Amino acid sequence: MIDQPQRRKIKIKMDAAVIAIDSNHDFVTTAAFNYRQEKVYPYLYERGFVIERCQGQLARRIYVTSAARRSNVVYLTGVGHGSYDTFTGQYNNPIFTVGNYSTEESKGKIIHFLSCQIAALLGVDFVQHGCRAFFGYDIDFIFTVQSADIFFECDSEIDRAFAEGLTAEEVYQRVYTLYTKYADESFWQGDLNTFKYLETDRDHLCAPSVDRRWGDPQARLK
Q: What's the predicted TM-score (pTM) here?
């Protein structure tokens, strides 16, 4: 059993910015986008972060690249489709692709994207280009429609935990624990699809605690 780190308050620079990169052009991305709009970004704002939104029609490379290069940006997060080497925005337009973004967009930042597959290559590449910690999945992220908010809650715990000042290692422990809690509840309720997919997503969440290819386990927002 993994102990859950205690919540603690931290001081954030008043201008510390989060870039929210969210597509919402189909059922999958819209469902996740709506959850994040209601549950994630208000929480980050309450914790003292400035939220720079590259969402919907603004979830495109031309807008993200200029926003991500700003010196006060500490965290990139969002939802979009992906492949092993590419994270896409609105209507599957590539935003980050291995070999096609500047170091200024990743250096010194922590990055978390809810997307399929991108941890396998793009997440590693982010770290090689100065990203302090990356969180994402190395296979398809799968969820059940009837329990979608449970899956989004587990993934979004990454954002909430970082906002509370936890280290990447502590973030991973807390997210793993939450995935396991809901998986166990689903099993005992007889919802075996939800149980199976929660365990699969949990076991394919890539982070510095899994392998240093995804950054420094002691990285935290500051």
A: 0.93
